[in-house]
Specification:
The complex is a heterodimer. By secondary structure, chain A is mostly helical. Chain A is built from 8 helices and 8 strands. A two-stranded antiparallel ribbon of chain A has the order 1-2. Chain A has a two-stranded antiparallel ribbon with strand order 3-4. Chain A has a two-stranded antiparallel sheet with strand order 5-6. The radius of gyration of chain B is 38 Å and the shape is rod-shaped. Classes of the chains: A mainly alpha, B alpha+beta. The interface between A and B is large, with 57 and 67 residues.
C-alpha cells in the first residue's frame, strides 16, 4: 500500500507491527516443535480436534475391549484345561467300569477299582472347585465360595444354578457381551441324597461306587450288570463335557477374531490420530529455519531504515 | 510618498513571521512521536498592501506590498478517517474482550490433555469395565470410587474456574462489590473519567474559539479521547457550531458542551446478566445513588466495543457463546451422568457389612450427590457421597433380578450397565453420548475462539491501515520539517540581510548627509 506521505512514526509503527507478526509466527512454530503437537488448544484446529476426540474415544474403548478379551481368554483357556482333565477322568472311569463289569474280578479287585473311582470322584470335585485368580470358575456368580462341598458320600453344588442368573458377562465390543463362565451343575452335576437331587457326572461316579460296593458284598451276575449299566451313563457325561468344551473353543476363536479386528482398527486409528496431531518435524523445522531468516532480515532492514534521516547529512 | 522607515516594518514582520514558523516546526518535531498529535501547518498570506486601494489616492504608482503575515496555524486532520477509525476500533474492542475470555476458557477446559473432562470420563468408564470383571475385588471397587472422585473434582474445578472468570469479567449478581471491581466496573470508571475530561476540554475549546484562537492541541487531545471512548462502546459524536462536541449513547446525551449530563454506573442484575449499566445524573451517581437513574438499563444500547464484548460474554444470549452457556453445558453433563449412574445404583445390589448382597433400592445413598445427600444440581456441586468413599463395597455392582442369592457377589450386571452407559445415547443430552456432548462443547468453543481470533486479526489489520492513512495525513515527517527549517532559516537570513542593507541606507541618510 502506498501513501501520499511517509512519516517517521508511520515507518516505526509499521516496522514494529511487522516485527511483531514475524515474532508471532516464530513463536507458533517453536510451540509446535517443543510440544510435538499440532493441536494444543481447541482454537488451533477445532475441526481437527473434534475428530481427534472422536478417534481417541474409540481407541481407548478398543484398548479396554482388548484387555477384556485377554482377560476372558485366559479364564476360558483355564476352563478348557480343566474340562480336558475331566474328560480324562471320565475315560479312566469308563475303562475301570468295563474292567469291573467282568465277573472274573473278585471282591478284592473290585475294592481296588472302587478305591480308584473314589479318587477320580475326588479329582472331579477338586477340578470343579478350581479358582481363576480369586474367582471360583464353576460357581456361577458365587465367586467367593467353593461351589462343591462334601458331606459323607454327598457332593452338593452350592453355586448359582444353571437355571438362575449364573452369567458373568464381559463386554468385548460396543454392546457385544459374552458370558465367560459355565455353571458347575451343568458340567459336573451333584449327588445330594438328602434332597434326592442327584444327576450328572458326580452322580454317575457316586452310583458307580455304590454299585461296586454292592457287588463286593454280593458278587452276583445282576450286580455286575448293574456296574455295566454305568458305562452308558459315563458316555453321556463325556458327551456333555465335550459339548461344553466345544463351546469354549468356539468362544476362544471368536475372541481371537474380535481381537484381531480391534487390533487392526487400533493401528489405523493411531495412524489417523498421528496424522492430525503429530507435528511433521521436517516441515516444521524447515519452516522454522525459514521464519528465523525472515525475522533476522526484517530486524536488519528495520535497523537500517530507522537510522537514516536527513539529519545524517546536515551540517 | 511612503515613510523612510516603511521597509523596516516589512522586514520586522518577515523576521517575526519566520520565527513563528520555526516555532511551529520545532513543535512539530518535538511532537513527532506524541500519540494523537496532528502536524501543524502555518498558513502564510501577504499582508494588506499600502496604501489601501481607495479611490483618490494620488502620487503613487501603485500599492506597496507590506510583506507576509500568518493567517492561521492549522492542524492537518481528516475527519473522515477519524470517523472510520472510531467505528473499527469499537469493533476491535469487542473482539479483544471476547478473545480474552475465550483464551481463558480454553485454558480452563484443558482439551486435549490428560487432565480434562474427556480424559476423566474415560478413566471413570474404564474403571467401570474393570469393576464388571472383578466385582468382588475391594481394590477394584476402591479404584472405581477414586475415578468417580477424579471426575467429580475436575467438574468442580472447571465449573469454579468458569464462574470465577465470569466474575472477573462482569462480577457476581449477588455482590455489587464484585461487579464494581470486575473488568466491566473498572472500564466504566475509566469511561466516566474520560467523559469528565471531555467536558473540560470542550469548555476550554469554547473559550478559545470565542477569542478567535485555533485550539489545535486541545482538538488533538479531544480527538484522542473520542477515539478511546469509542473503543469502549458505540457512541454518537455531534459537533456544535461553537466548536464543542456532544457525545451520546443511543438517544441519551452523555456530554453536552462543557457539561457531563449522564455518567455510567454499574448495578446488580440477575443470574442471566449479572451486571447492568445505568445512566445517572452526575449529581445522583454513587453507591448508593442519591436519585433515580435517567436510564435504568443501558445494556441493550451497548452491543459493541469493550463493554459490549464484556456484556455479551458475561451475559446469557443463547445465540452467542457465553461463559454461562459453557457452564450450562458442564452442568447438564454432570447432572446427567449423576442421574444415569445413580439410577443404576439404586436398581442394583451392593455388598453389605456382612459381606452379603443387598438390594440398594431408591433410598440407598447416591454415588454422585451434592455432598449433602441430595442429587447434584450443577458441575460445581457434584461430589462422590462420603458413604461410598468410606466403604467402596457400597457401590452396587451386582444386578437386582432375579432375587439374588446373598452370596452371588460375582454378579456384575450393574457394573456392566454402568460401563455401557459410555456408548449410550442420553436423552437429556439430545441423544448424544457423554463424550460426544462434551466434545461438541469443546469444538463450539474452538470454532468461536478461532473465528474470533481471525476476525480480530483482520480487524487489527484494517485498523492498522486506517491508522497508517491517518498517520500519512497527519503525522510528522522529520525530514520534511528539516527542509522547512532550512527554507525558513534562509528566509530569516535573507530578511536580516535586507534589514542590514536598510540600516546602511538610513545610516547614510541620518549620519552622512550634512
Amino acid at each position: 500500500m502506498s501513501f501520499a506521505r511517509i512519516t517517521n512514526r508511520l515507518m516505526s509503527n509499521r516496522s514494529v507491527e511487522n516485527l511483531h507478526l514475524n515474532l508471532q509466527r516464530l513463536n507458533d512454530l517453536q510451540n509446535k516443535l517443543s510440544s510435538g503437537k499440532n493441536i494444543n488448544v481447541p482454537s488451533d484446529d477445532p475441526v481437527g480436534l473434534s475428530r481427534l476426540l472422536g478417534i481417541d474415544e474409540t481407541r481407548k474403548q478398543d484398548e479396554r475391549y482388548i484387555s477384556n478379551i485377554n482377560n476372558a481368554r485366559s479364564e476360558l483357556n483355564t476352563t478348557d484345561a480343566l474340562l480336558s482333565s475331566t474328560t480324562d477322568v471320565i475315560q479312566r472311569a469308563r475303562e475301570l467300569t468295563v474292567q469291573a463289569s467282568n465277573q472274573t474280578n473278585g471282591p478284592s479287585e473290585l475294592a481296588a477299582i472302587r478305591e480308584e473311582v473314589q479318587q477320580l470322584l475326588n479329582q472331579v470335585v477338586q477340578v470343579a472347585n478350581t479358582r481363576f485368580g480369586n474367582k471360583y470358575i464353576f460357581g456361577g456368580t458365587r465367586t467367593n465360595d467353593a461351589p462343591y462341598t462334601t458331606a459323607g458320600a454327598d457332593v452338593i453344588y452350592n453355586g448359582t444354578q444353571s437355571t438362575g442368573a449364573y452369567q458373568r458377562n464381559i463386554e468385548i465390543g460396543s454392546g457385544v457381551v459374552i458370558t465367560v463362565n459355565f455353571p458347575g451343575d451343568d458340567i459336573f452335576g451333584q449327588y445330594d441324597t438328602g434332597s434326592g437331587n442327584e444327576y450328572g457326572l458326580i452322580n454317575t461316579l457316586s452310583t458307580l461306587i455304590n454299585d461296586l460296593n454292592t457287588a463286593i458284598a454280593a458278587p452276583t451276575a445282576a450286580n455286575y450288570d448293574a456296574i455295566r449299566g454305568n458305562i452308558d451313563l459315563l458316555d453321556n457325561d463325556l458327551d456333555n463335557v465335550l459339548s461344553v468344551q466345544t463351546t469354549v473353543g468356539a468362544l476362544v476363536n471368536r475372541l481371537d477374531m474380535t481381537e484381531n479386528r480391534l487390533q487392526e482398527r487400533t493401528i489405523s486409528l493411531s495412524k489417523e490420530y498421528g496424522s492430525i496431531q503429530d507435528v511433521d518435524l521436517a516441515k516444521v523445522i524447515s519452516d522454522l529455519n525459514f521464519q528465523e531468516s525472515v525475522f533476522q532480515t526484517s530486524l536488519s532492514a528495520t535497523a537500517r531504515v530507522l537510522q537514516s534521516s536527513l539529519l545524517d547529512y546536515l551540517r | 510618498m511612503v515613510s523612510s522607515f516603511f521597509g523596516l516594518y516589512t522586514t520586522q514582520r518577515s523576521l517575526s513571521t519566520t520565527q513563528t514558523i520555526m516555532n511551529v516546526i520545532s513543535n512539530n518535531i518535538a511532537n513527532a512521536n506524541t500519540p494523537g498529535y496532528s502536524r501543524q501547518k502555518v498558513d502564510l498570506v501577504t499582508s494588506s498592501p499600502y496604501p489601501q486601494p481607495i479611490v483618490g489616492v494620488q502620487g503613487l504608482p501603485g500599492t506597496f506590498g507590506t510583506g507576509a503575515e500568518i493567517d492561521r496555524i492549522a492542524r492537518t486532520r481528516d475527519s473522515f478517517l477519524d470517523a472510520q477509525y472510531r467505528i473499527e476500533s469499537c469493533t476491535k474492542g469487542y473482539y479483544v474482550e471476547r478473545q480474552y475470555a475465550f483464551q481463558n476458557s480454553e485454558g480452563i477446559l484443558m482439551e486435549p490433555s490428560e487432565s480434562g473432562i474427556t480424559a476423566k470420563l474415560d478413566g471413570f468408564f474404564q474403571s467401570a469395565q474393570e469393576l464388571s470383571l472383578y466385582p468382588e475385588s475391594l481394590a477394584v471397587r476402591t479404584n472405581f470410587v477414586q475415578q468417580a472422585i477424579d471426575l467429580a473434582v475436575v467438574f468442580n474445578q472447571q465449573a469454579t474456574s468458569l464462574i470465577d472468570l465470569r466474575e472477573a469479567l462482569v462480577g457476581d449478581f449477588t455482590d455489587l462489590t464484585s461487579i464494581r471491581e470486575s473488568r466491566l466496573g473498572m472500564n466504566v470508571v475509566d469511561i466516566n473519567t474520560k467523559l469528565d475530561t471531555l467536558a473540560d476540554i470542550n469548555r476550554q475549546i469554547i473559550t478559545l474559539k470565542g477569542n478567535n484562537v485555533e485550539p489545535n492541541d486541545l482538538l488533538d487531545k479531544r480527538d484522542l479521547l473520542l477515539d478511546e471512548l469509542n473503543s469502549y462502546m458505540p457512541i454518537t459524536i455531534d459537533e456544535t457550531p461553537v466548536g464543542s462536541v456532544n457525545v451520546s449513547l443511543g438517544t441519551n446525551i452523555l456530554v453536552a458542551g462543557g457539561t457531563v449530563v449522564n455518567v455510567l454506573q454499574v448495578n446488580t442484575g440477575d443470574a442471566d446478566d449479572p451486571a447492568v449499566i445505568e445512566l445517572y445524573d452526575p449529581a445522583d451517581a454513587g453507591f448508593p445513588p442519591s436519585g433515580p437513574p435517567n436510564l435504568a438499563n443501558a445494556n441493550s444500547l451497548i452491543t459493541n466495543g469493550i463493554l459490549g464484548g464484556l456484556l455479551e460474554i458475561g451475559g446469557h444470549d443463547p445465540s452467542r457463546l457465553t461463559i454461562r452457556g459453557m457452564l450450562d453445558r458442564l452442568d447438564t453433563l454432570a447432572t446427567e451422568i449423576a442421574t444415569e449412574i445413580n439410577t443404576l445404583q439404586a436398581g442394583g445390589s451392593f455388598i453389605n457389612a456382612a459381606g452379603d448382597l443387598e438390594l440398594a433400592g431408591p433410598t440407598y445413598p447416591l454415588l454422585f450427590g451434592d455432598g449433602a445427600g441430595g442429587p447434584p444440581t450443577s458441575a460445581a456441586d457434584i461430589r462422590v457421597e462420603q458413604d461410598i468413599i468410606d466403604d467402596p463395597n457400597r457401590v452396587a455392582a451386582a444386578g437386582p433380578t432375579p432375587p439374588l442369592d446373598v452370596e452371588e457377589v460375582g454378579n456384575a450386571d450393574q457394573a456392566l450397565l454402568m460401563a455401557q452407559l459410555r456408548n449410550g445415547n442420553i436423552a437429556g443430552l439430545g441423544n448424544s453420548t457423554f463424550a460426544n456432548y462434551h466434545s461438541s462443547t469443546i469444538s463450539t468453543l474452538g470454532v468461536q475462539a478461532r473465528s474470533n481470533e481471525e476476525k480480530l486479526d483482520s480487524q487489527n489489520a484494517l485498523l492498522g491501515q486506517i491508522d497508517l492513512r491517518r498517520e500519512a495525513y497527519s503525522g510528522v515527517n522529520i525530514d520534511e520539517e528539516l527542509v522547512d527549517l532550512i527554507r525558513f532559516q534562509r528566509a530569516f537570513e535573507a530578511s536580516s540581510r535586507v534589514l542590514t542593507t536598510m540600516n546602511g541606507i538610513l545610516d547614510v541618510l541620518i549620519n552622512r548627509v550634512r
